[in-house]
Amino acid sequence: MASLTPKEKIALITRNLQEVLGEDIIADVIEKQNRPLKIYWGTATTGRPHCGYFVPMTKLAHFLRAGCEVTILLADLHAFLDNMKAPIELVQHRAKYYEFLVKSVLKSIGVSIDKLRFVFGSSYQKSEAYIMDIFRLSSIVTEHDAKKAGAEVVKQVASPLLSGLIYPLMQALDEEHLGVDAQFGGVDQRKIFTLAVENLPSLGYKTRAHLMNPMVPGLAGGKMSASDPNSKIDLLDSAADVEKKLKKAVCAPKEVEGNGVIAFVEYVLIPISELGAEDGKARFVIEKDGQEIVYETIEKLKEDYIADTIGPKELKVATTLALNKLLDPIREEYANSPEFKEIEKLAYPPPPAPEKKKKEKKIGTGYVAKKKGEVDGQAAPTTVDLPVAAPGPSTPAAQGLPGPYLRFTEAIQNGKVSAARDALKAIERIGVAPAKLRELKGQLSDLEGIDRAGRE
Amino acid sequence: MASLTPKEKIALITRNLQEVLGEDIIADVIEKQNRPLKIYWGTATTGRPHCGYFVPMTKLAHFLRAGCEVTILLADLHAFLDNMKAPIELVQHRAKYYEFLVKSVLKSIGVSIDKLRFVFGSSYQKSEAYIMDIFRLSSIVTEHDAKKAGAEVVKQVASPLLSGLIYPLMQALDEEHLGVDAQFGGVDQRKIFTLAVENLPSLGYKTRAHLMNPMVPGLAGGKMSASDPNSKIDLLDSAADVEKKLKKAVCAPKEVEGNGVIAFVEYVLIPISELGAEDGKARFVIEKDGQEIVYETIEKLKEDYIADTIGPKELKVATTLALNKLLDPIREEYANSPEFKEIEKLAYPPPPAPEKKKKEKKIGTGYVAKKKGEVDGQAAPTTVDLPVAAPGPSTPAAQGLPGPYLRFTEAIQNGKVSAARDALKAIERIGVAPAKLRELKGQLSDLEGIDRAGRE
């Protein structure tokens, strides 16, 4: 708002954050240079954005309200490179889907998005200037430091890929190539932020400020994961689904630490109600015994929750109501926008229909039939793990047929070690990208570990 | 030669090599496809090419004689990235200098260079297609495998740089982007070659053959190093210098293993005399007691050397004569080519003239004067270590003045630990690229180690 003083702007920008590096940079831009702070937030466009995205979105709303110029980096290239799980066209569709959804979410929480800019990573991360900067940065950052930087962000596996060392460098360079003053992210990004602070000056670039959100537990308990459909509430889930999933959410009575529902109220619902209020006061309503209790601060709510004045049930009902109120305009926009629907279909194409039971018959090219003995005799797959095959013989799944990958996923989910081992053999035989194979083998070892542990 | 049979071509291509991977690929191209084998050899354009370059050049002569299409990759980008010791313009001048010199060497040994192609790394290694391939490859190669691949090629230091992990990937990708059938290098490249064999197919690219030279000891004993002027014979050294340096060469009587002079005869002088002979027979002449002994094989020469029939002195004289005969046309070409001389000057600019003794006077901006106390009181520097400062305050040396870097080099050379430590402090204070600083600190630790060891 034009009416905010510089001090108020800075307070709003840093509200609810766990840590800020380079506050002087922010103060300099807003107080001395008297211009909008330019800030970026990046997201790899892989799984569907879920309700956990409300947390950073709420901060983006703060930034926009404080007059910042906000850039959202749709990191399609990162998403593509993350084990090459999806082809570049697919992650670019996903980036567009993210753009639709993020705009919709921000509109839903009542923020003007005039100063919001979306940038596709692939639009500049393949440029000569960017590449030379990756090369230059790789010549001053040690392996050790790159590894350390990604420790909390890059998936830690037994045989880490080289790409995991390049990512932190790219994230640092994005600050320069997006022309921002500050980067925003979760506190899990801290080491990457530090890498940027320590190394950008060596390339002749200025140091940026870094704004860090605390790590907020997911609504369903633990980290909300996009890849497990049962652990997350999709931004386009129906009101009934939201109610159902919240009912199942972990929410221990009298416990506020690690309580995802309380955290959602604290980091999303209260700040948003505050942004939308004419008097600037937060307002979160819980109904108990037919009476409305209005909370203006999270502290009061936590107090009552610890004292058991309000319990998980009332809290969940209130949260469901408030969340559905936020999701309603998003669902509505989706329902009324053919483009939105179209891009959703392109970004997350439905899995190939499971083959109907005709097991006696040879299927398609006969390729599957040849493998039949190894992968047969299992129920139709319930989830689809998009296969990435190395150029070579097409996999059954690539031909729209359920194949060993699906069976592997299935076996994994049901904890069937021997079935998974058979499926892996079949997968190895049909030719598969090494990264994928490694991933599957890792999953199998995990499963075997569980299996052994279970037997002991 | 058009007159060589396919079998003869293959024999010539693989002659004197220690190892060949993918001989079937070579046979397929030459015998089945009946076309010239396309092969590449890469060199990072840093220090001046010295006489050690005759060893791979002799193999290139074989390839060309066997009708191969030979590509020389002038890896200017690699050179630039190698700790960013020299700016990109400088390494590109050096790449041009390499091109002049390599052509001159090949002409000197009598090979047609019609089928020789020079490619600058920077001409395609910054392209979108190449970069995407680096990204893709980094997503299937593990950190561990990239590290292992570079183990014998990338300088092993306490804090290895990330660039050292990217180099092997680039060297592998160059095979595809240069469109060759085979890569040639020393056997020290073996692990990088293996990385290429194992991973290019995952990107949908074909597997290349790999031709490996044995590791040949330098003329001056040990590895011939471009960075130590005393350990190497420059391709443009005068006849007198060659004589002088060969006289100093390590060449133990009766020992042929690890004997750089014998190795030079084996891998350069004998093969070249053979290429130039009308009857195809090698001929290496040693004068002893006024009589000429003609060697047609290295085996006979080694036999006589072990038996002490010929000693280091006769061998050195004969080698000096033969080497000078090879160098004469190169020197002549240089002397008669203004372009050659011009590019040499641009590639290896003379160090700034050492400041004359005017110590009482303030120099230039006064910047040096401020540091006087720390770096003063030492003799004028004899060698110049081109400083690469981070953008920021100019270093004295960047202004053509002797500065802390020179003093550091000087102190290092004279083993003065405390002087070097003072110089390092000054260097840190004037702002310096971290990679450079790390390097200098490493040198200082080494020196301190020596110092301590000396004191014990």
Architecture blueprint of SSEs:
2 copies of one chain form a homodimer.
Chain A: H1 6-14, E1 19-21, H2 23-32, E2 38-44, H3 54-65, E3 69-75, H4 76-81, H5 88-108, E4 116-120, H6 128-138, H7 143-150, H8 163-177, E5 182-186, H9 190-199, E6 209-213, H10 239-248, H11 260-276, E7 284-288, E8 291-295, H12 298-306, H13 312-336, H14 338-347, H15 367-375, H16 404-413, H17 417-430, H18 434-455
Parallel strand pairs in A: 2-3, 2-5, 3-4, 5-6
Antiparallel strand pairs in A: 1-6, 7-8
Short description:
The structure is a homodimer of 456-residue chains. With 456 residues, chain A is α/β, with parallel strands linked by helices.
Shape of chain A: globular
What structural class do the secondary elements of chain A suggest? alpha/beta
Q: Classify the beta-strand content of chain A into a percent band.
A: 5-15%
Q: Please state the oligomeric state of the protein chains shown.
A: homodimer
Helix content of chain A: 40-55%
Spell out the helices and strands of chain A N to C. Answer: HEHEHEHHEHHHEHEHHEEHHHHHHH
Instruction: Please name the fourth-level CATH homologous superfamily of the largest domain in chain A.
Output: HUPs
Keywords (chains A, B): Aminoacyl-tRNA synthetase, ATP-binding, Cytoplasm, Ligase, Nucleotide-binding, Nucleus, Protein biosynthesis
Protein name (chains A, B): Tyrosine--tRNA ligase
GO molecular function (chains A, B): ATP binding; tyrosine-tRNA ligase activity
Enzyme class (chains A, B): ligase
